[in-house]
Q: What sequence folds into this?
């Protein structure tokens, strides 16, 4: 055989790895751009997002009778919708990232504990996860927010209480398989402590699964915040999120469609990109799903 015969599989593998990075750029790039624009809001030439102009209420966007003074139109108090979207993106993304962390971190640790230790720990964590998953998210949110009041802290607490269970179940399933792998058995035979094996060797092997869950959880958090804002249970004024902007235009939907349409488009695009990014990360971390 010629050397080309042996080089072909290697070249095919390198080409597959290069292709595997393209979806991450396609989906991660627009998300990074959205985050960058939101973070740069104080530097952009935008009207203050809470500045009211009662002489220019419900102005339509450009192309529908509006002017470039308000490219996306204004709301019922005359506030510039573009400015609200950019500034609202800051808080929306903050809630998405923080809400993801408060659910993923305890979920991953409890899932690791249940899957690696088994026994009573597994039974306790599994029953708790089943109980949380059996409760409707909206009912839990209403009960907690009605008792404690609406605030960002309470919203994050709701997301933590309701979001950890799904992550814990998936991480537990992965940990169950890893605990019987030869490298874990070898570490036990070498005298390594169970805590060291779990945190230094098993947990890093779960990082791909956790990263995928984190991307998907961010999209779930954005949708949850939007749903709660629509019900009047989101972050209270004067805080601005995409969900609160969308909810604010509900009562004038037939007169000013743009107030709900543009934040709805922003939520849809970002959540879709996060889900596609999660799929791309899954393919990246799981060679069995990679197509060459």
A:
């Amino acid at each position: 055989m010629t050397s080309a015969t042996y080089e072909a599989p290697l070249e095919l593998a390198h080409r597959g790895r290069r292709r595997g990075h393209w979806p991450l750029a396609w989906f991660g790039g627009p998300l990074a751009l959205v985050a960058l624009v939101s973070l740069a809001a104080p530097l952009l030439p935008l009207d203050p997002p809470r500045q009211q102009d009662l002489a220019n209420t419900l102005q339509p966007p450009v192309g529908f009778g509006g002017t470039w003074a308000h490219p996306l139109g204004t709301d019922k108090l005359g506030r510039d919708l573009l400015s609200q979207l950019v500034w609202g993106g800051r808080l929306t993304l903050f809630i998405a990232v923080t809400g993801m962390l408060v659910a993923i971190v305890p979920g991953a640790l409890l899932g690791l504990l249940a899957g690696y230790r088994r026994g009573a720990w597994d039974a306790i964590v599994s029953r708790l996860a089943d109980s949380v998953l059996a409760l409707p998210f909206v009912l839990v949110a209403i009960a907690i927010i009605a008792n404690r009041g609406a605030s960002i802290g309470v919203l994050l607490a709701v997301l933590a209480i309701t979001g950890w269970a799904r992550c814990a179940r998936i991480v537990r399933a992965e940990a169950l398989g890893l605990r019987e792998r030869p490298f874990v058995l070898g570490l036990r035979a070498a005298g390594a402590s169970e805590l060291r094996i779990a945190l230094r060797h098993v947990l890093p092997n779960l990082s791909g699964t956790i990263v995928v869950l984190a991307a998907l959880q961010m999209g779930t958090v954005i949708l949850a915040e939007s749903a709660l804002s629509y019900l009047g249970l989101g972050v209270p004024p004067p805080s601005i999120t995409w969900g609160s902007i969308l909810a604010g235009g509900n009562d004038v939907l037939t007169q000013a469609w743009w107030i709900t349409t543009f934040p709805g488009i922003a939520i849809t695009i970002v959540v879709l990109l996060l889900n596609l990014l999660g799929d791309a990360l899954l393919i990246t971390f799981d060679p069995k799903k990679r197509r060459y």
About this structure: Residues 253 and 260 are 7 Å apart (CA to CA).
